[in-house]
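Sequence in, structure out.
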Amino acid sequence: MQDVRFDRYREDVPGRANVADTPELVAYYRELERLDAGALWTVANKIEPWQPQSASVPVLWQYDRLRDHVLRSVSLVTPEQAGRRVIYLANPGRRDVSAAVGWLYAGLQVMHPGECASTHRHSASAFRFIMEGRGAYTIVDGHKMTLDANDFVLTPNGTWHEHGVASDGTPCIWQDGLDIPLVNALEANFYEVHPDLHQKVEHPVDDSTGNWSGTALLPSEMPWSKRYSPLFKYEWGPTYESLRRYAATSDGSPYDGALMHYVNPTNGGPVMPTIGASMQLLRPGEHTKAHRHTGSFLYQVAKGSGFSVIEGRRFDWTERDIFCVPSWAFHEHANGSATDDACLFCFSDLPVMKALGLYREQAFTDNGGQQRVAVTPLA
C-alpha cells in the first residue's frame, strides 16, 4: 500500500493540530478507516483554514469569443432536445459541480423567433439577464413578462416557468443564473416538467411590473407572503435612471461606486432567499479602491468598458463580458472612459452569507487602497 502521510496538515502553531505520524498512530488511523471514521486532528487544519480558501479562480468570459459558439448551438440541438439550450460557464476550479464561481451556476441561453422551451420548475432559484435581441419573454406561474436588453427577470424556486421568443422577434441571448450547485450540495434539488409542457397565461401581460414597480409605493389590495419578490421583472430604463440620480447626489461606495441592490419591494430584502443581485455605476474615469468579502460574485458588463483587478491580476472588460470574483479575493473596478459611465450587473450568494452570519468584509490598505498589478493584463 502506498504510504500516506496523516500529518501533512499539521501546523506548529499554538491551538492548531500538530501531531506527527508514528507507526503506532498510523496503525490506529488505519483501524479507524476500516470503521469509516477518522481522527479529527489529522484533517482539522484542512477543514478549518485560517481564512476562506476558494477553489474558484478569477475568470473573464469574453462575449465576442463565446457569442458565435452560443449561436451555433441553434443548428445543433432544438429546445425540445436540450430542455434548455445553454452554454454554461465552467470555472476551472469548479468543473466538478458545473459552477461559474463558488456555488453559483451561470450560462448563456439562445432562442430563435417562435421557439419556446417547455415549462418546468425546480428547487434552485434562477434569473435571466437579457443580453441581446428583441421579442424575448418569460412566463412565471401564469405571469408573462416581455423582455428587453439589460432587463433582469426572476424565476424563483418552485415556480412554473418557461422562456421563449415571439415569432416576430429576433434571435435572443440571455444570461441564466442559478444556485444549482448550492442546492445540490445541500442535497435538496428537485426538477419537474409541466404535465402539459406549457402553461397558460393567467394574468395581464407585464402585470407584475404594473403592480409592484412603483417607486416607494405598494399596492393596497395585493398581500404577498412568499419569500421571493412579487416583482418578477426589473426593467433597465428605471434602473439606469435610478443609478444616475444616485451617482449625482452621493459619493457612493469607495469600493463599488454608485451601487444599488435589486430588492423585494414588500420588505426591502433580497429578491430571492439564496440569490442577491445589484447594478453599479462607475463614473467617467472612476477607479475604486480594493476590498474583499465572503461570498461569490459574478459580474456582467451592462454598459461601457474598463477593467477589474482581482488578486493582483488585471482583467480588461467590455460590454457583455462576464467575470467572476471568488470569495475572499481582493478586487477593484475601473471605468476605462473619461467621458461616459460604465455599469456592472452582479449576482451573488450574499443573502446566504448574511442569513447564516458568515459575511465578512475587509479593505485593502496598502498602496493607497489599490492593488499592484502583478501580471500582464488579461484580455
